[in-house]
Amino acid sequence: MWAFLHKLGSPKEFYAITARWLTPLWLAAVALILAGGVWGLAFAPADYQQGNSFRIIYVHVPAAFLAQSIFVAMAAAGLVFMVWKIKLADMAAAMMAPLGAGMTFVALFSGAVWGVPTWGTWWQWDARLTSMLILFFLYIGVIALRGAFVSREGGARAASVLAMVGVINIPIIKFSVDWWYTLHQPASFSITEKPAMPAEMWLPLLLMVLGFYAFFIAVTLTRTRSEILRRESSKRWVRALVEEGR
Amino acid sequence: MRAKRKQRLYAILGLVALAAIAVGLTLYALRSNINLFFSPVQIAEGQAPLERSIRAGGMVKAGSVARDPDSLDVAFTVTDYVEDLEVRYSGILPDLFREGQGVVVVGELQPAGWLRADKVLAKHDENYMPPEVAQALEDAGYAPEDYQDKAAEMRQRLEAED
User: Fold this and answer.
1) What are the chain A neighbours of B33 within 8 Å (beta carbons)?
2) Of A9, B32, B96, B142, which one is least surrounded by beta carbons within 10 A?
3) Residue B121, domain CATH
4) pLDDT by residue (tens digit) across A112-128?
5) What ipTM is given for this predicted complex?
């Protein structure tokens, strides 16, 4: 196990090993999102109160899950980079940040669109909504901080520290609906509890969530591999790859 | 090298722990301000200011909605199952507004103890179901326990502070 992880920590080995994972991951992502999307949007029953606007859940919930998971993954990569000085972890963290920011935006936007017909407002300074907005700003901060340094090492360190400290916001987002009175309702769908909806509603949601995770891993691997080639472009193994015409 | 890594790990964990404590204390100090709305318990305890725009929230009490047949005026009771608050509103209610449903009302608390609402927002719970299932469950009538617990906890805290 440790030997394998150690091997994965080397950009060259990582590049070789992950080449085999890409196709299955992308296929799984496309298949799950297509199946979950068609099932959820066209075949799942409408809600008894909200009617068809309930179907926004099939985008909103997976995006919100990813927004938080990506931040945790980014902070974990930051920790690995800072403690063990593994460059690859920093590359992965840098590649995850824009997708995480995008997912946070999708969650906020789909939530606002959903809020208009159900709550009667697209925005309230509610603890859940506000902490999610803070997450969006944290992502922007991590991306901007990395770019603000002249040296790559300095930017990487600053971004790692901000990601690790910013991870405090994640439990606040998760528990905001339990700790305070909020407009946003408590979670309908989580790993630990029985979903607050029947199977024909949550099964497509589960497919979407899995599809979004597969998409995240596939995007991160693909982008990290390109980043490896870019940063290691002067290394002999990369030149050999280029000469092979690959 | 090993010792150095350990040192870095502890430094980072220490930093994150300190930041977490700082954020935790801030949120604890602001805890009542972070609530989006006052619950009927808080209003009954005199926590909410009079004649200033506030938000109040809770469940629309079953059987409390009274509409004026000649205008858009409507009166209803918002409850957290511990205390009740009378709300009067003139305007169009959101689609999801119904008895037993959560609402957040924006308006001014009157000295007589009722609230004149300018805006009514519907709050919905975390349960989703197809119309047929809802029909079957309609007679059962559920009390959102989580909501009740929170209101009871608020009452306890307010009493402890007095």
Assistant:
1) none
2) B142
3) 2.40.50.140
4) 999 988 888 899 888 99
5) 0.75
